[in-house]
Write a structure and sequence with these properties.
Length: 357
């Protein structure tokens, strides 16, 4: 951990390390508590996380069959982050923006798996008419602003979305997701400065899955406690167990309370892990199989919710029938995609330039 040369006046509120830079009177966010979910909410978390996992596995298969071209980054292992955060947002009011690892986020938003799979396979029925593919999905209706291939670019754009919420006074909050690798990008810090200066309603979420392509966070980051990255801009940060959907939801509630209370931005570092390679073309030789297996065995977010569900009295049969219904949805999405036509060649010339502002 890098040493700070300026005294830190606001003490971390938890051992996990809620902290805020700045003067003595500056408020700090409350320590987040794990969310107390009802049985129905737990079932919904389970459904959504299993849907993301099975959907991503199917996407991996279709990629292997050559039905998906270009890059394809899977979200397997990180499901609790998108599901936990999304569940706390107000649909139609709050906005979201993320990088290229975006299929899981779209599913967590309730976007139809058929149009996501059709987009992945480059079909006309895809959410970006088959022209965006894996990395460039977008849904203005859901206030989901992509899907961005340039590492870190979504942070500046998300700050703009936060500005728009404030300017319009619509009460919305922007959630801008980015990775541990992206957190070393210069534009992130320009965005932090403006967001805090103007007290913009934005939650910066670092999905720290421990790797940026083949480089581990410890090898690339002088300060690898990423929740502290906002300190010199007086942006408080919380470190969260991103493998536990209830911890994620609890921290998001706290972050929303902070931001909606007019305190400006907050940073959430979600400690998570991706089970698959960076993209489908990555053999992941920079880490051992044992490391991945240990995460799967000890911290899997879906197994974690299963335990909560068992404690809530949900039977194994009930979970099995959910699993079956999800498999059906995913198979249908692949069938839908494969039977949809490719876009007409004339589509090459549409949506390329905005001709009028
Ligand atoms: C500006 C820019 N630089 C480099 C790349 C190549 N690149 C794509 S993904 C990536 C790693 C990003 O890692 P991280 O932010 O941790 O996100 P993760 O893939 O782990 O979700 C890099 C370097 C890029 N797309 N854009
Ligand atoms: Mg990463």
């Amino acid at each position: 951990m890098a040493k700070s040369t300026t005294p830190r006046t606001a003490k971390p509120k938890t051992a996990a390390g809620a902290s805020a830079g700045g003067d003595h009177n500056r408020p700090v966010p409350d320590t987040p508590q794990d969310y107390k979910a009802s049985k129905d909410e737990l079932l919904e978390f389970y459904r959504q996380m299993v849907l993301i996992r099975r959907f991503e596995e199917k996407a991996g298969q279709l990629y292997g069959l050559g039905l998906i071209g270009g890059f394809c980054h899977l979200y397997i292992g990180q499901e609790a982050v998108a599901v936990g955060i999304q569940s706390a947002l107000e649909p139609g009011k709050d906005s979201v923006i993320t990088g290229y690892r975006d299929h899981g986020h779209m599913l967590a938003y309730g976007i139809d798996p058929n149009v996501i799979m059709a987009e992945l396979t480059g079909r006309e029925a895809g959410i970006s008419r088959g022209k965006g593919g894996s990395m460039h999905m977008f849904s203005v209706d859901h206030k989901f602003y992509g899907g961005h291939g340039i590492v870190g670019a979504q942070v500046g754009l998300g700050t703009g979305l936060g500005f728009a919420h404030k300017y319009r006074g619509d009460g919305g909050v922007c959630v801008a997701y980015f990775g541990d690798g992206a957190s070393n990008q210069g534009q992130v810090y320009e965005s932090f400065n403006m967001a805090e200066l103007w007290k913009l309603p934005i939650i910066f979420v670092i999905e720290n899955n421990q790797y940026a392509m083949g480089t581990s966070v410890n090898r690339s980051s002088a300060e690898d406690l990423l929740y502290r990255r906002g300190e010199s801009f007086r942006i408080p940060g919380l470190q969260v167990n991103g493998m536990d959907v209830l911890a994620v939801r609890g921290a998001t509630e706290e972050a929303l309370k902070w931001v909606r209370g007019g305190n400006g931005p907050i940073l959430l570092e979600m400690k998570t892990y991706r089970y698959r390679g960076h993209s489908m073309s990555d053999p992941a030789k920079y880490r051992s199989r044992e490391e991945v297996q240990e995460m799967r065995d000890k911290s899997d977010p879906i197994e974690g919710v299963k335990k909560y569900l068992e404690a809530a009295g949900v039977s194994a049969d009930e979970l099995k029938s959910i699993d079956q219904s999800i498999r059906k949805i995913v198979t249908e999405s692949a069938d839908f995609a494969e039977s949809s036509p490719e876009p007409d060649p004339s589509e090459l010339y549409t949506d390329v330039l905005v001709e009028q502002y």
